[in-house]
Amino acid sequence: MLVALAAVYGCKxxxxxxxxxxxxxxxxDLQVLQRQASKPQERTPAPVQPxxxxxxxxxxxxxxxxxxxxxxxWAETTNVGDITLEQLSADVQTxxxxxxxxxAVQVFQRTRLLxxxxxxxxxxxxxxxxxxxxxxxxxxxxxxxxxxxxxxGNLRAADTHGRTAWLCAENAGHDDLRAWVCSTRSKIALWExxxxxxxxxxxxxxxxxxxxxVGALLACQEADxxxxxxxxxxxxxxxxxxxxxxxxxxxxEIGGLFSCPDARQxxxxxxxxLRIGKPAKALREAESALTLLATQPVRPYGTEAQIRISxxxxxxxxxxxxxxxxALGPVLAMPGERRMGPVTQRMRELGAAMTRSPAANAGVIGxxxxxxxxxxxxxxRQHLALSSRDGPT
Length: 393
Hints:
Radius of gyration: 32 Å
Shape: elongated
Number of strands: 0
Helix content: over 70%
Oligomer: single chain
Number of helices: 19
Largest sheet: none
Structural class: mainly alpha
Low-confidence stretches: none
Strand content: under 5%
Distance between the termini: 53 Å
């Protein structure tokens, strides 16, 4: 049959056999094919030749070497180059930085497109080292999408991105990525009300041997969850660990959203001390955080808004209602597309606290409370829904 096929296609028998085919054929058949391959290829029947003596079995050592060479040729091929991998990593860093001060919806869409590109490359073929680098980029991109989805109010989608990011971190064996994914998933669990899960994710990330400032952020997130659970002692202990982690921090691999500068850490501390009934300490930390932010070249508007809300809440709790509106001024001036989920949630918490006040409907407090209620009606989530409905799909 093979001889007939070779004649039909006008090729050699070797051209229609690969290594697996040869392995599957009995030795006797291989000898027949070897004899046939040694004959000249003619389209007209050749005269019958005397039967040739049996040929010796092919040298198995040389055959094995040829098979190894063929596999090596396949193994060294790749659909991605080192320059492309370097550019992908740089693009991830750019997106992580731009999200802090840019248009959230636009950065989300660009992150999604880059993630799709990396996924497509992973579906191709590349050596293990390059595949590992692709998994790291894919993991950070899914982590960004998880964080953004949470900020835009879709916690279920955020959790899905978080699980995929963890898979990428595991496939890459990358501890820094593992820790940042744990931080992202802790944040999602917190805003979804799964406070024990938030603590567990933060602790899991803290046990990873990661570099950079992620250790400080994980401790802050654990403190955040404990404060919501009303566990003041555990919250204070976690804040202490955050300070200790700060002393041993190194450079962050990605930076931007995947970093915890001093102002971000002070923001968490202020929110925690508010919840555990220490408004004076919270006020000092909020004011310190604002001072630190003023020295940064790029001011993350989400972090700044949360700091100012903590400042306003601390002033209110400390019996200084006249300073609340001034503290909230920059927050109230934020356009709707920048009013992320955590910011609007913090504003609702402040409004709810004012509603419980005996002076809820009188004077400055009543005016601030009503202003907050109106402000919360417009949010980034609504702007995302409108852009998804009106724009191209």
